[in-house]
Amino acid sequence: MRHSFKPxxxxxxxxxxxxxxxxxxxxxxxxxxPGNLKMISKILDGWKIEDIISMxxxxxxxxxNTSCADQLATGLKQVLxxxxxxx
Length: 87
Known about the structure:
The chain is an alpha+beta fold. It has a single domain (2-86), classed as Sufe protein. Chain: A, CATH 3.90.1010. It contains three helices and three strands. The chain has helices spanning 34-44, 49-56, 68-86, and strands at residues 2-5, 14-20, 23-30. It has a three-stranded antiparallel β-sheet with strand order 1-2-3. α2 packs antiparallel against α3 (68-86). The longest helix has 19 residues, at 68-86. It is globular and about 40 Å long. The two termini are 16 Å apart.
C-alpha cells in the first residue's frame, strides 16, 4: 500500500513510500537535498519498517530538531500505529 506523509520542520514537503509485507519500497522525498535523499531511498529500499525507524529516528539536520530521515521514521511509526488499530 502506498503511503504519504507531510514532514514538519524540514525542507522536504512530502514523503511517499510503499509498504508490503512489513518492508518499505520506493521511498520518495519531495523537496529537500536531492542527492542525499535519493541515496537514502536507494539504501533503505526493501528494509523492514522497524529497521528503518531504528536507523533513522533521532538523526538531526544542522541546528534543526529533526531531519528528513527522522521524519521518515515518524511517518513509518504512524503506519505501524494505523496497522495496530486495524488489527
